[in-house]
Amino acid sequence: MKKRILITRLSALGDTVLTLPLLFTIREAFPDAYIGWVVEEKSASLLRDIEDIDKLHIVKTKDKSLSGYYRMGREISREKYDYVIDAQGLSKSAIIGFFAGIKNRIGFKRAPLEAREIAPIINNRIVSAPSELTHIALRSQYLAGKLGINPPYSITRTLPITESALIPMKKWWDENELGDRVIIFGVGTSWVTKIWPLEHMKSIVDIALDSGYKVVITWGPDEKDKLDEWREILGSSVIWSPETASVSELAALISLGSCYAGPDSAPLHIAWMLKKPTFSWFGPSCSFRGAPPSELDVHVIAHPANRQRTGEMMWGLSPDIVAPKFTDWLVSFTKLKLAQMS
I need a surface site. Which of 29, 143, 187, 210 has the fewest CB within 10 A? Predict the structure, then answer.
């Protein structure tokens, strides 16, 4: 009998991206399984085009309440899932599987940032990931062990790019004659405390330009009113990305670049899932949980993580500290690229 497995990850886009290795691990182990995913409306667009998901259960913004989660649980109960994997570890993510009547509810042991509130009580197949697994995506993969899977603890597959998303981005890319030496930079995030001031970021943008790379700056719909100010700071040598119509188009754009640089945000994790070398900066969030962990990924830390969402803490990250590390990362990446071409 085919396994019927539900993943619950309701939160922000970046965390949704970082749960994809768990999905791919399950699909590779059980190619015939029926896999569902519960996601909030704001992050659903990323998952709609992923063929590994058989059923997407979307929690609408207006239904984010106990009664809404109950209705979602009763709807999900019709799918008769055998297992639910709570990759988020909050009451709202755990209770949906309970309301759905799913017998095997897999989740983390109580720990800060991993299993909180009443989630460890609601879930009944508790997992304690080893301390040496620090990155959130690899720890999430550990949950698959309760399905009898020995996870690879790595990215075995990249984020799929749909043709419908790639075509308009490639058209824009070719019209701007960007070629294959392009660094894509991100600026904003949903947390203002994660944003490195552009006056400082300009130092590494200039290094990239002086090294013969073209620079594309990405932006989201919530940042449209800031573009004039950003353009004044970064100057006319950079290229501003088009307004992407979906997360899929943003991923397609990132896939065309040579590498990515930016804060702890969804585009950084998308770049990692596309196996692009990344350079990132961290402030209030935990770098050991979120910074891409492979050899060509480098990050800098402004200060110890504190989860603050207000203030201007990233001003303390000096260009004098970041620029040498960015230069070393760029040289290492360029050498590797030249070696691959020879």
Answer: 210
